[in-house]
Amino acid sequence: MVISDADQYRQFLNSLHRDESRPAALNDIINLFSLKPANEISAVIRDVGIKEIVQCLNVQDKTQFNLTCEALKLCCDKFELGGIIRNYTGHFMFMLRHEKACVRQIAVDEVTKVVTSDPSLLPVPQYIDVFVAVAQQVLDKDVSISNKAILVTSNLPYEAYPKVLEEMKIALEYDSSSKCNAFEVIVNVASKSPELLKLCADHQYFDAMVSELNTNDVLYQLNILELMSRLAVAPHGINHFVKTGVLKRVSELVAALPNNPLSALLTPGYMKFFGTIAHKYPQEIFTKYPVLMNLMFDTFASQDQATLPIALDTLGFIGSTIEGKLSLAALGSQYTQGVNAVAQLIRNGTTEIKVRALHCFASLIGVDFGSPLPRPIDHRVTLMTREWFRTLSQSPMVTLLELCKNPFPDIRSAAFALLDAVCQHQWGEELVARTAGFIEFLLDRSVSYPKELKEVKYDIIKRLSNSVAFDDSIILRLQVYVQQGPFYPESEMQVATEEGD
Question: Is residue 38 over pLDDT 90?
Fold first, then answer.
């Protein structure tokens, strides 16, 4: 007589009650689940249950415990998405709060699959306790589990958050790592809409974040600043930070940095924070929070080698937009001195600083960064960028040509980025045309460049091939280069020349 799968499964489960037969029974269950199709096994499991397997999670024997986890993982895999949670919610809650990480991992993985695929499979009213339990796992010591908990909790339906945000506050009673995980969830949630931001604010999470900036844990402070900057770039995020005085409180912390013994470590973080916001809202930041801008320009004045790299990156990031350029220029002498400082660093800085300064200068001068721009470009931008470029040296194009020939790959690559920015302007095209040897240098294919730099050089030549700054003979040579492409081999060019002769 053939025994059905359900009867076999019942026999295996009964054997789990005896210590001596448990390992064999667990292996039998694993084999049964592994060999049968998912739809057949899920029907058997629904009919018989998983209570006895879950009870085996309490055994002390490590081998038996691992077999139990393997069997439960197979149970989850055999059900349709979310099925194991809907059919065995009580057992699932037990697994989510189990003392062993491998059990919690199985459970949180199942919730992650549902929430990232189709959250409607777990309606909030019936499964709010599951979502709360996962939210509390943001403080889990196992990074894999806490990361999944952050992902799940950041992507729940709106109606889950009143309860979830309240219960997740338990994380704020633990260490900095747990609090930082909770703050990451808050930023992810609040960034979605003004309504969710208000909900987070009502639970006083943002007050907690700002308060944590007074700790002596530098890395923790920098992480909080990075998270806050991610929310601040959303329009409703910056509006909330301004209205509630969060930015004012941060600016007060910046003003106090000179008296902070950790100033050297914290300054780059605060600079990056305001730079991220000023990139989106330059005029507001420059006008209302000048202390934030002073932090950057003071670095140029002091030539602090530790903070110069981030100051250069920040200035370039702010000045990469048209609004950023105009807002910077409106600062007057303070900005002019900053541009002069960048030019000086290009001429005299260390290799690392020189590269950062070149990229900064390219961002300040360039206008084509992939976003549609009005044509013609604002004449103020044309005039300003031309004046800024002249600060490079007494003969800026000669200096730029020398930098493009620099034997150090990083410097040469950064110099080409600046050349590309210069050639985005008509005045730049005219300077290239008037500088002896520049066109010949660009058209020379005998110099070996990496792939990325060949593509940059090709884009520059393609732009110049449509310029009115060159005579017809030069335009023809540029157009031929463009037709041949960025990777036209030198050997083919020589053969073509010899055949022509």
Answer: no
**Residue 149 CB neighbour total at 10 angstroms:** 29
Token pair 């999470």 in the structure block, residue: 205
Average pLDDT rounded to a whole number, residues 143-162: 96
Residue 260 contacts residue 252 (beta carbons within 8 Å): no
Tokens of 245: 């005085």
Which residues, other chains included, contact 390 with Cβ-Cβ below 8 Å and sequence gap of 6+? 396
Q: Which residues of 296-315 are buried (b: 16+ CB within 10 A; e: fewer)?
A: bbbbbeeeeeebbbbbbbbb
Can you give the length of the chain in residues?
501
How many whole angstroms from its chain centre is CA 303?
29
Token match 């002769």: residue? Answer: 501
| C-alpha to C-alpha distance for 101 and 453, rounded to whole angstroms | 48
In terms of C-beta distances under 8 Å and separation of at least 24 residues, what long-range contacts does 87-93 make, across chains too? 87/46, 88/49, 88/50, 89/126, 89/127, 89/129, 89/130, 91/50, 91/51, 91/54, 92/130, 93/129, 93/130, 93/133
Contacts of 279 (CB under 8 A, 6+ apart): 233, 317, 318, 320, 321, 324
DSSP symbols for 201-231: HHTTHHHHHHHHTTSS-HHHHHHHHHHHHHH
309-323 average pLDDT score: 94
Is 418 in contact with 358 (CB distance < 8 Å)? yes
Spacing of C-alpha 272 from chain mean position: 14
C-beta separation of 138 from 178 below 8 A = yes
Q: What is the pLDDT of residue 448?
A: 86
pLDDT digits (tens, 9 = 90+) for 8-27: 889 999 998 888 899 999 99
Residues in CB range of 412: below 8 A, 6 or more apart: 403, 404, 405, 406, 453
Give the percent of the chain with pLDDT over 90.
Answer: 74
Neighbours of 34 (CB within 10 A): 13
Residues 201/223, Cβ–Cβ less than 8 Å = no
Q: Report the mean per-residue pLDDT for the chain.
A: 91
Identify the band that residue 498 occupies on the pLDDT scale cut at 50, 70 and 90. very low
| Terminal-residue alpha carbon distance, the chain | 94
**pLDDT tens digit string along 39-75?**
888 998 999 999 999 999 988 899 999 999 999 999 9
Please determine, for residue 495, whether its predicted confidence score (pLDDT) is greater than 50. Answer: no
Alpha helices in 319-471 (DSSP H): 322-329, 333-348, 351-365, 379-390, 396-404, 409-422, 426-434, 438-443, 451-464
> In the prediction, which pLDDT does 375 show?
57
Write b or e for each residue in 365-379: b if 16 or more Cβ atoms lie within 10 A of its Cβ, otherwise e.
bbbeeeeeeeeebee
87: how many CB neighbours lie within 10 A of its CB?
Answer: 16
Measured over the CA atoms of residue 491, residue 497, residue 500 and residue 501, the dihedral's sign is negative
Neighbouring C-beta atoms of residue 407, cutoff 10 Å: 6
